[in-house]
Amino acid sequence: MSDAEIPLQGGRTTPSIVRVGQTVRRPPRLTAEFVHVLLEHLAAVGFDGAPRFLGTDDNGRDILSYIEGEVPAELGWHKDEVLVAAAQLIREFHDATVGLLGHQAGAPRRLEIVCHNDLSPCNFVFRVGIPIALIDFDTAAPGTRLMDLGYAAWLWLDLGDSDIGIAPEEQRRRLRLFVAAYGDEISVSSVKEAIVYRQELLTAEGDYTDRPAMAQWARHCRSWTLKNL
């Protein structure tokens, strides 16, 4: 049946997200109004790498267009061409959000773009092994390119995960590749600083919200990054 609700299991999804036909239904979050404006803006400027906001249903859930593809459930290793495609898609997303901020007189220029703020591979839709769209904009907010890019580089390269067995020298090469694919004259050293900063933030969040596993993971990743990058 076209109106059957199919739970979506891919990625680290918010609970109660379902697919109904060619739409996704999800409970609204506190940031829902901003997310609606963001998605409508992305549609208006022709950015195809995000779902479309289609209104709300009778249960008060947001209705989004469904993007065909696969969403990874965990972090992991990615080939060079995948890293390049991800960085380029992030750049396209960032560029598409510039006009939304407006930069009215007196507005702080440090708010360059709208950050997704959770650019993990687990929030991307893949087709034939290549990332083609972003999903889950619940934490989106105005910010800087480096803030978003630092977090993205950390998770796309899976920095600090000794289980995947990538040598530090190879991780440094992959980081250079990722940053170059993003472009915009952003330096690798500035991205390294942003990575460490985001690792510190997640460590603090884990401690504050009593999620020791998350805090321990972020703390370990920070230590690895400072030592090896």
Top keywords for this entry?
44% helix; two-stranded antiparallel ribbon; 6 helices; Aminoglycoside 3'-phosphotransferase, Chain: A, domain 2
CATH topology of the largest domain: Aminoglycoside 3'-phosphotransferase, Chain: A, domain 2
Averaged pLDDT: 92
Q: In percent, how much strand structure appears in the residues?
A: 5-15%
The helix fraction, in percent, is 40-55%
Note the main sheet: 5 strands, antiparallel
For the largest sheet, list the strands in their spatial order: 1-2-3-5-4
Give the beta-strand count: 9
| Gyration radius, in Å | 18 Å
**CATH class category label of the largest domain:** Alpha Beta
CATH superfamily of the largest domain: Aminoglycoside phosphotransferase (APH), C-terminal lobe
Global outline: globular
- Please count the helical segments: 6
Contiguous uncertain segments of 5+ residues = none
Number of domains: 2
What is the CA–CA distance across the termini? 52 Å
Structural category is alpha+beta
Q: How are helices and strands ordered from N to C?
A: EEEHEEHEEEEHHHH
**Level-2 CATH architecture of the largest domain:** Alpha-Beta Complex
List the helices and strands and how they pair.
Layout: E1 5-7, E2 18-20, E3 23-26, H1 32-44, E4 53-56, E5 62-65, H2 80-101, E6 113-115, E7 124-127, E8 130-134, E9 141-143, H3 145-156, H4 168-182, H5 188-208, H6 212-228
Helix pairs in contact: 2-3, 2-4, 3-5, 5-6
